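1st attempt posting a full record on here, be nice pls
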Amino acid sequence: FTSTAFTSVAQLVGSKFGKLGFSVSNVKNRLKTLKKRHTDAQKVLCQSGFGYNDSTQMIEAPPDVWGTYLVANPDAKSFRYKRVPNFYKLDLLFGKDRATGSNAAGPKERQRQLAREIASSSEDAPSMPTNEESSCALPLKNQVETKKTKNKAIEFVCEELRSLRSGMDAVAMALEKGNLRNYTEEQLYDDITKVEGLNEISQMRIYQALSADPNSARAFIACL
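the predicted structure (as tokens):
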């Protein structure tokens, strides 16, 4: 993504979730987190016996397959019981073609291939465009592709923020119940994970926010 694309995404998301605040740095960090999570999920799915269930949004495999794999790859344990939302959409955004030979291409190679196809199409055309038409054709196509790319980024960031916002709403509702107890940070995190509708990233962000604000943390645990 270009710096302009990041700025546009941050501005648009910020206008939708103004109370949370959203900067270019937030966009970059969120995309970095999504990309790492997606790459790690791909590594698991490349192994024999694993598959992605679009209904449950989880990686599935027989227990013995999971057991064998986790012995060699303990860091993949989280994928056994936690959802991997929007895997196919993320694959469109981050994934590389897994073909071999001339069909294998990453994002940069696909851009070069697209440029070659455009040049080839121009050579094969029955008539040559005027200078004015020629100067407008490529920028217009680039604008369309750039808009599609920005829309994809905006869609994923907005979805994650909706999840986080929903989780914070659920925490706020919890503030209307219960009696005060003394909690360790570990117990605080355990109770946050029990709030329905939160993904792993949202749980961690809420935990970090409450850990940094003792008053909010006390209010939260007092109402459980």
